[in-house]
Specification:
6 helices, Aminopeptidase, 9-stranded mixed sheet, alpha+beta
Length: 198
């Protein structure tokens, strides 16, 4: 079993979603979705399968297939995710009644009162329905309750769709990061952040 924090992400927030019985309803009212902590081998296997599906569907046009393959092996393999969880990252499957439609991960730093949103990925057939916005609202609401002040993330500078979504949600670009990840690849990112208001 993979260990994750016991803090619930299912507490109500001030977001525009409607909350009931631990579920939040995205703008497409036919989709009732919950965040399931990745706290078992079966959920970890589902997460790895979902990462492979989403990354191979979305990122080859942005970073190329060779870098997708490398990043999946280095950062989204079972071993890599287990190491991240051991280091304090919390992973969640985004799931309606059926199969997972995406996943999210973050890590809190209470020394500087921030939450790093490391992952927020939605399957291609489910994008554009407000799900990422609702998940981000949940993550922000729980961060606010934990007393955190800033949410930040990194996003590839050529991932215009994600950048536009994040800017619409109130994040702003605060810097550029180029990180050597080995094998001749770099992550060419923007750092984006927002204040977590009371």
């Amino acid at each position: 079993m993979v260990g994750v924090g016991s803090s619930s992400l299912l507490a109500p927030t001030r977001q525009k979603a409607r909350f009931c019985a631990g579920l939040f309803i995205a703008r497409d009212s036919a989709i009732m979705t919950t965040l399931l902590p990745v706290d078992s081998d079966s959920r970890l296997i589902r997460l790895c399968d979902l990462a492979e599906l989403i990354w191979n569907e979305y990122f080859p046009s942005i970073i190329g297939q060779a870098q997708v393959d490398y990043m999946l092996a280095r950062f989204q393999s079972r071993e890599a995710i287990e190491a991240q969880i051991a280091a304090g990252y919390r992973y969640f499957l985004i799931q309606p009644a059926g199969a997972p439609l995406g996943y999210a991960a973050f890590r809190d730093d209470f020394d500087d009162a921030s939450r790093f949103l490391s992952k927020l990925y939605i399957r291609g057939d489910m994008r554009g329905r407000g799900i990422a916005s609702q998940v981000l609202g949940e993550i922000l609401g729980e961060a606010r309750e934990a007393g955190l002040e800033t949410l930040w993330l990194t996003v590839n500078r050529h991932n215009r769709l994600a950048i536009d979504v994040y800017q619409t949600l109130g994040l702003r670009i605060t810097g550029e990061l180029v990180t050597d990840i080995g094998a001749g690849f770099v992550m060419d990112d923007y750092r984006m952040e927002m204040d977590i208001d009371d």
